[in-house]
Amino acid sequence: MSSLQGRTVVLAVTGSVAAYKAVEVARLLKKRRARVIPVLTRSGERFVGAVTLSGITGEAVRRDMWDPSYPGELHVALADAADAILVVPATADFLARLAEGRADDLLAALTLSAKGPVLVAPSMHPRMWAHPATQRNVRTLDADGRVTFVGPEHGEVASGDIGLGRMAEPEAIVQALEAALAPRDLTGMRVVVTAGPTHEPIDPVRFLGNTSSGKMGFAIARAAAERGADVTIVAGPTAEHAPPGIARVDVRTALEMQAALDARVGVDVTDADVVIMAAAVADFRVAEPATRKIKKRPDEEAPALELVKNPDLLAGLGARRASRGAVLVGFALETGTDDEVIAYAKAKLASKRVDAIVANHAGDALGTDHSRVAFVTAHGAEWLPGASKAKLAGEIMALATKLLRART
Question: Which residues does the annotation mark as catalytic?
Fold first, then answer.
């Protein structure tokens, strides 16, 4: 379940060309079952219509502190109702007024009255963002500790110029809001996650591998960090980026991943509180990789490769885990029917001595942004509806947290 479900978010739009993206932010918030109250500044309304925002959110658009249709202090009432305030986009002018503590319109007064987090997604020309006055205002807001910045990003802006000033994408903004509102119930806990494939060398330029992207593992690491955990991700070759605050250890082979894990979870797996093995580790490796590139010669047959088994990393952890050791969650990437996938996962749960298996179909998971998984524990098996890997990662961390609480 998203941390936004049942929450009330004030979505404020100021006057930037990027205001059109606020409509997509509103749609994503509603999709996560948040209540969204739109606020438009006068300049914001020049870029996006009130009817559009109202139609998406199902709420009346608020514009004026002196709104005659609302009795009492509208800015205070909105601040009381809001679990968070999200300003998308946030212009240089708005940041300046916020840094000064101005309260001369509805949005400025509302942000000063906020009880929950205030997130701003800056959008402006790169020269405006780099201007000393803007950077001074950003430093002031950072020092006050009352505002969280989401972006800006480096990229092309409306003028066609390229630089730092482009607004963050809607999905990234919503994920930042989810992180701000997520429960911090894993503060002080140590979580280790593996992610991505392993590449087992054949020669200096070839390898045995698979098409795992690492997206699920990185999403899980992000979800754990959002709950306050101290997170380490051990990653095979992948293009994914670890968010700030997450320790990353890069490895290539299964043996390297084993060594990295051993160093971080300890001999009896007591140096971590939760270990989630989302990596797609190669089952086999070449016994003797060639030291030079293998050549294809017209007068020779294809070379035979002698394969040996890689260690079963998950089973190894389960076998040596002490009674007070970490919660262990493994993955079962399988082919076949739903019933067959569950059967494989149940067998893996028992044989590898772990607390839970996240089972999925290979065709649903590899290289995609969405997936469909089943949770298999000693208490039974349950398929979850297909969803984004970010959402499923939250569900996986909720399961791991539940298992951790049950053990403690």
Answer: 210
